[in-house]
Amino acid sequence: MKFLTQTFRRSTRTRALAVAMALGLAGGALVMTQRTAMSAEAAVVIAPPAVDEPPTAAHTETAVLAGGCFWGVQGVFQHVRGVTNVVSGYSGGARDTAEYETVSTGQTGHAESVQITYDPSQITYGRLLQIYFSVAHDPTELNRQGPDVGTQYRSAIFPANDMQKQVAQSYIAQLNKSHAFPAPIVTKTDALKAFYPAEGYHQNYLTLHPDSMYIAINDLPKVANLKRLFPTLYRDKPVLVTTASK
Predict the structure, then answer these.
(1) 81-110 pLDDT, tens per residue?
(2) Which of 63, 75, 104, 211 has the least C-beta neighbours within 10 A?
(3) Mean pLDDT of the chain
(4) Domain-wise residue ranges, the chain
């Protein structure tokens, strides 16, 4: 029961849709179809970053990004070529508050985030950011994404070093200058202090629950947009979590 409560806490709108579908109301199905179509149109075609990370001899790098509910962001990057692992978790707050129930209060400083491990010889940090801004979330929404509201759903990049900070800030400036989006980007760049993996039931959520209404409405369209807009970077079989989570 606790798991179901946590899942449906995502939004009152999702709860309303669940009731409508349970009652077999055609109107509920119509609303879901319309909202899925609206979500699918949210992807934006944008230019790659003019400034990107230089070639490196390293075989593994990590990036920490926040863009709303981590289920969908994780699901998107699990389908990206060159990515070797994506973990849902929390960043921006203290270790002792890195727990779902506490983070959900919006008072911890944490954002639902993902830690992306990738091979820089196959995909760059800048290209990851291009996917992040284009299909993984809407960077013009302040402290929310879709039906999810609160600072824990904010748009944030957590650079691990000066290079990542430079690439991220330069790209935000580039996109704003080109008016790539109809409104200014609100994404913040906050130095990475730590990343804390989320509870086990949050990992691989999109892959494990594709029939969830929340996933169908909000997240599966993102994966479809990744395939459509980045066909050379898309892979059909997702890379699932391999690191330990609490």
Answers:
(1) 999 999 999 999 999 999 999 999 999 999
(2) 211
(3) 86
(4) 2-229
**Cβ neighbours of residue 19 under 8 Å, at least 6 residues apart?**
28
Fold of 2-229: Peptide Methionine Sulfoxide Reductase; Chain A (3.30.1060)
3-state SS string for the chain? CHHHHHHHCCCHHHHHHHHHHHCCCHHHHHHHHHHHHHHHCCCCCCCCCCCCCCCCCCCCEEEEEEECCHHHHHHHHCCECCEEEEEEEEECCCHHHCCHHHHCCCCCCCEEEEEEEECCCCCCHHHHHHHHHHHHCCCCCCCEECCEECHHHCEEEECCCHHHHHHHHHHHHHHHHCCCCCCCCCCEECCCCCEEECCHHHCCHHHHCCCCHHHHHHHHHHHHHHHHHCCCCECCCCCCCCCCCC
> Which of 80, 67, 45, 86 is closest to 205 using CA atoms?
86
Kindly name the residue from 65, 69, 206, 220 that is annotated as catalytic: 69
CA distance 77 to 158: 16
The dihedral sign for the CA sequence 11, 117, 157, 134: negative
Whether 166 is catalytic is no
> What does pTM read for this prediction?
0.86
